[in-house]
Structure formats: structure tokens, C-alpha cells
Design goal:
254 residues, 0% strand
Length: 254
Amino acid sequence: MLKIGGYGFLRFSLPITPDASAELDWLIITMSLTAVVYIGFVALVQRDMKKLIAYSSIAHMGFVTLGFFIVFRIFDSGLGDQGAALALEGGMVQMVSHGFISGAMFLCVGVLYDRMHSRQISDYGGVANTMPVFAAFMVFFAMANAGLPGTSGFVGEFMVILASFKASFWIAFLAATTLILGAAYTLWMIKRVIYGDIANDNVRVLNDINKREFLFLALLALAVLGLGLWPDPLVEVMHPTIDNLLNHIANSKI
């Protein structure tokens, strides 16, 4: 559902009303940076795994809107279409990546909830001792959620940060704080849920994932790894659309 808003900006706001979008770009950029920084701190204090992942999704979607609306600042700086294209492509890659990673993280929480009927972080601990295969998948997706290079979570964020430098150092600096905050709340959850000694008898009797769960987690892992290591096929598909969109943005409708 979060991606519907991003799609609306791409298909309606930017190409149809570029003048209004340019006039209010400061508002969207401010809200995007608020989502990246403030919501990152909100995610840090969550005790429910599903809420933590949900808040992290909001923070990651802040990169999408930042990439879409930073293009006006890049045009104003006189750096041409290249930086603007990088920002838009980064936002679009982030949308696709977020669909894979967020879906995988929610699926991991669902696997645990199906066995223990609890999403509270405090109810877990030492899951790797009883569910080693599942633990490997969850740690991998958590690292992708934190933006580990080589995963899809890194590609879109890095492209948007690079493009932001062409507009403003401080915007890029604030956006880059997600590399710290994202690692903080993600690793905090993983440490308490996956690692350590077995916390209680409920964790001690957990069964590892079955073939059906393994299949879906493996497919998502391949998608996250594939997009992270080789994003070029996806980016190439975007080029005609991005070029057309930049033409609409650059030309006033008034």
C-alpha cells in the first residue's frame, strides 16, 4: 500500500502538475527527511517486531519521495538531467526493493507468530539455536533492511543519497543517517530475537521452517540478492520512462 503513494507521485503529481510540485518540493523533502530521521528513532523504541518493521518501512519510503522531489533542487543547481535521472531511478529501485525486503521481513515475523502467537521481542531469544535455517534467512533480510551493500536495500538508498549531494550536502547528510539508524534498530531486534541463549521453554521447542516456508523465503532472498548485485536490467527498463518524465518536469505547464 505504501507504494501506491509513490506511484501517484510518478503518474500524476510530477508529470501533470510539475509547477505545483516544484513550488511545494520543500514540504515533501522536509517530510521525507522527517520520515528518515525521526521515524528511525521511533522504530528504535518499538517492542513489537511487526511495528518495528512497519516503522522502518515508513523510513525507507522517505527515500522514495526524497528521490522524486529532489529533482527540482538538482535542476535549480544547474547540474542537468543526469543527477535528476539518478534520483528518480533511485526512488523507483527503492520502491521495488522495499516490496521484496518488507514482504520478507513480515513473512519472517509471521513464521514466528505462527509458532508462538507473539510478536513481542521480549518473548524471544536464542531462536538460532532451534531454528538455524530460519535464522539465516531472517538475518539476511535484516541486513538488507539495514542497507547492506550487495543487497537491494543498498542500491536505491545509495542512488538517492548520491543524487541528493548534487542538490544539497545537508539533505544528503540527513538522508545518510538512515545507514546508522537502520542498522541500530534492525540489529537491536536481531540480537534479542535470534542470538543469545535460549530465552524460555517456548523457544526451546520451536521447529525450523518447512519446505513451503523455505521456498518462499528462498525466492525472496534470490530477488533481494539479485537486485542488489545486478540492478542494471531493472534500471535499463526504467530509462525511457524516466526520460519522458524528466521532459514533463522540465517544461512548465503554465
